[in-house]
Amino acid sequence: MATLTDKTRSGIGAALAGKTMSWRSRLLFMGPAVIASVAYMDPGNYATNIQAGAGYGYTLLWVVLMANMIAMLFQALSARLGIVSGKNLAELSRDNFSKPVVWVMWAVSEVAAMATDLAEFLGGAIGLALLFDLPLMVGMIITAIVTYAILLFEGRGFRPMELIIGALVGIIGLCYLAEILIAPIDWGATGAGLITPALPDAQALTIAVGIIGATVMPHAIYLHSGLTQSRAQLDDDAARARVVRYSNIEVIVALAIAGMVNMAMVMMAASAFHQGHSGVAEIETAYHTLTPLLGAAAAGLFLASLIASGVSSSVVGTMAGQMIMQGFLHFRVPIWVRRLVTMVPAFAVVAAGVNVTQALVVSQVILSIALPVPMIALIIFVSRRDIMGDLATGPVIRTLAILGAIAVLGLNFVLLAGAFGVPIPFLA
What we know:
Blueprint: H1 4-17, H2 23-28, H3 32-37, H4 43-56, H5 61-85, H6 89-96, H7 99-131, H8 136-151, H9 158-182, H10 187-195, H11 202-213, H12 218-227, H13 237-273, H14 283-294, H15 296-329, H16 335-351, H17 356-370, H18 372-382, H19 385-388, H20 395-419
Helix pairs in contact: 4-11, 4-13, 5-10, 5-11, 5-12, 5-13, 5-18, 6-15, 7-8, 7-15, 7-16, 7-17, 8-15, 8-16, 9-13, 9-15, 11-20, 12-15, 12-18, 14-15, 17-20, 18-20
């Protein structure tokens, strides 16, 4: 009996063979970018967006928009790499770099995967603990069980997982659609914030650096190339080029939704907190402050979106970790072992009594250190004609990618300098 994944592959093949394509056929191509988009709506984004809206109202929305554009470019390139080469970024790194370089890349990427899961896993646990008034450790156990249950669907092929993650993304989006309907949004200020670059003071610059510097996530770059590498049998460059076009459309749609969710977070925080509660910066504080300001429904929706974000991004983080290990080392472990390993740091942090918000900050620092590895490797591989053929990136896209990498990596350097107490003159 044909599985859902088999039917999807068959449908994609039939669509590529035909000269016309219905909207139903186009939907079959959607999935990889939806999964990757979760990285841009994970709990690590919540605190930064809340801080931006609470402290500066709608002023920093343009930063969110610019960050989203950079994310679209790199995720599109990652998807293109998998479609055209038939290999993911980790596999190509293993095949093209020396063994010492590969081992270093793998080690850095594994640490980044664990740091990513720390933020995502804690985010879901915090949401459950606040919503149901549970101890944080109990929230973590529930999150672990739920994420593992979802990961079991990966054994049934790619399509069930794409649909499950898509449903969770839909929950996040609907929650924030409801939030901006509940909150009295200043739409004029929203429009001005999107099109008028402004940094009122040094602290605003610091927040802007945080938003952009943590935009492109290492695990999302690795994962997206793997999600597109074997969804369909592509026998010639014409078929590959056609799938790349559909992939680009999906990336734009999925990352646009992720961008709008991030903008909605800033808008909600600006509406609820900017006047009178501008110091709100933590998830727990935002929840407790929302109830008296906008009502229990708004606070509940906030936590529902946080739980969906934490669970979905934790699942995706585990998938990415599995792909990174298999790609670099040609070695695969059972999914329950992978899930257990990536959960250990989060449980250790809570058991040791470490401040959860501080742990999230440290995880972002680790990601900043790891980010150059996949970004630089991706730009190298998508530019090589021996790997990409006629679908190698041209000078315009290559220049944009290099400029985007310089911007993101430069801002990550500023984040790291601040985290380690190194004074930066323009942030003084």
